[in-house]
Amino acid sequence: MTRIWNKDRQTNAPLKRKVFVGLSGGVDSAVSAALLKQRGFDVTGVFIKVWQPDFLPCSWRDERRDAMKVAIALNIPFLFFDFEQEYKRGVVDKMITEYKIGRTPNPDVLCNKEVKFGAFWKKAKEMGADFVATGHYARIEKGQLKEGKDKEKDQSYFLWTLTPSDLHHTLFPVGHLEKGEVRKLARKYNLPVSEKKDSQGICFIGDVSMDEFLSHFISTKPGDVLDTRGAIIGSHKGAPLYTIGERHGFEITEKQPDDGAFYILSKNMEANTLTVSNKEPEIISLSPTKITVKNINWITEPSGPSLWAKVRYRGEKMPAILSLVGSRLAVEFREPVRGLSLGQSIVFYDGDVCLGGGVMNKIIK
């Protein structure tokens, strides 16, 4: 294992490397702190408070209490960082702006960039930390970001905005473990959150559906659902609340008993309409094969134009080819991509190495 000691200039005694661990109140971050302490780091637990809307139950105090219990169990210092303004400005406001114009941003990606590896690292560094650590299921090896060992929990898709510089001061202690192993370690260390369920919902905000959240910030009105010929076959609650590829939340009134699920193919924000289809050949023929991408970030430069890409967190990696269209990076897929939603992240891979990513911007064909 790499030597983690420096020497104190005055006493020449071993000096532990200092790491601030983001303790969310969950099991993954708790085990991360325990593993780092076991490895000999000088560990400080930090609970990060972010903005929460008034219409949701106040849950952060309960999460902070759990995080504090973990720090007590591990006998490590505990700090409280308030990043309410940073989160509201860097995540929520940007997310609402994108939804208003019909795009689908990824709040977890924004949260990682602006808060967990932005504001958190900045403050930790000011306070003398050498590293920050989180409970993400991802690995950092030889200066590269890699998928977590547990492919069901892998979170590299949300980490494409990290830079090579970020990787130098970031630790993912549970990235080499399966989720079941993390639970076992939590019990072994007698951590008070060992049986706590994983959190769901929007990053930090909690268990609330996106359409419910957005309804408080975006003015919407009911609109028509159209088939691909333009005929009205149903209704919806407001175009900004829906994502391409979605099949729930709208009503189909002109439906036959044997009709399958209808999927959203496109949105017209000006007309406030959704176009849907339940016919596989039709869905495929109207799905894009080439797009442009903005806000590109390369963690590791690709070795050539051919690579693999994911257009959603739970999606499969697909073969893709990079090219330039004017000054924009373009990505062409071998097959039409169902449910591709502009504003979402596209993340590039070479095997298990996350090369980087960008934001899907325009459909070319």
Automatic annotation (TrEMBL):
Catalyzed reaction equations: S-sulfanyl-L-cysteinyl-[protein] + uridine(34) in tRNA + AH2 + ATP = 2-thiouridine(34) in tRNA + L-cysteinyl-[protein] + A + AMP + diphosphate + H(+)
One molecular function GO term is: ATP binding
Give the E.C. number(s): 2.8.1.13
The record's subcellular locations are:
Cytoplasm
A GO cellular component annotation in the UniProt record:
cytoplasm
Pfam families per the record?
tRNA_Me_trans, tRNA_Me_trans_C, tRNA_Me_trans_M
Per UniProt, residues of the tRNA-specific 2-thiouridylase MnmA-like central domain are 212-277
Region entry Interaction with target base in tRNA: which residue ranges?
A: 106-108
Task: Give the UniProt record's GO annotations in the biological process aspect.
Answer: tRNA wobble position uridine thiolation
Q: What is its main location?
A: cytoplasm
Sorted alphabetically, the keyword list is: ATP-binding, Cytoplasm, Disulfide bond, Nucleotide-binding, RNA-binding, Transferase, tRNA processing, tRNA-binding
Tell me the active site.
111 (nucleophile), 203 (cysteine persulfide intermediate)
Which residues make up the annotated site Interaction with tRNA? 136, 344
InterPro entries attached to this UniProt entry: MnmA-like (IPR004506), MnmA-like_C (IPR046885), MnmA-like_central (IPR046884), MnmA-like_central_sf (IPR023382), Rossmann-like_a/b/a_fold (IPR014729)
Query: What domain of life does the native source organism fall in?
Result: Bacteria
**Residues of the tRNA-specific 2-thiouridylase MnmA-like C-terminal domain:** 289-359
| Ranges for region Interaction with tRNA | 153-155, 312-313
Binding of ATP: at which residues?
A: 22-29, 48, 135
The family note in this entry says:
Belongs to the MnmA/TRMU family.
* Record PANTHER family: MITOCHONDRIAL TRNA-SPECIFIC 2-THIOURIDYLASE 1 (PTHR11933:SF5), TRNA 5-METHYLAMINOMETHYL-2-THIOURIDYLATE -METHYLTRANSFERASE (PTHR11933)
Q: Which HAMAP family match?
A: tRNA_thiouridyl_MnmA
Q: What does this protein do?
A: Catalyzes the 2-thiolation of uridine at the wobble position (U34) of tRNA, leading to the formation of s(2)U34.
State the name under which the record lists this protein.
Answer: tRNA-specific 2-thiouridylase MnmA
Source species of the chain: Candidatus Zambryskibacteria bacterium RIFCSPHIGHO2_01_FULL_46_30
User: What taxonomic lineage is listed for the species of origin?
Assistant: Bacteria, Candidatus Zambryskiibacteriota
* Encoding gene, per UniProt annotation: mnmA
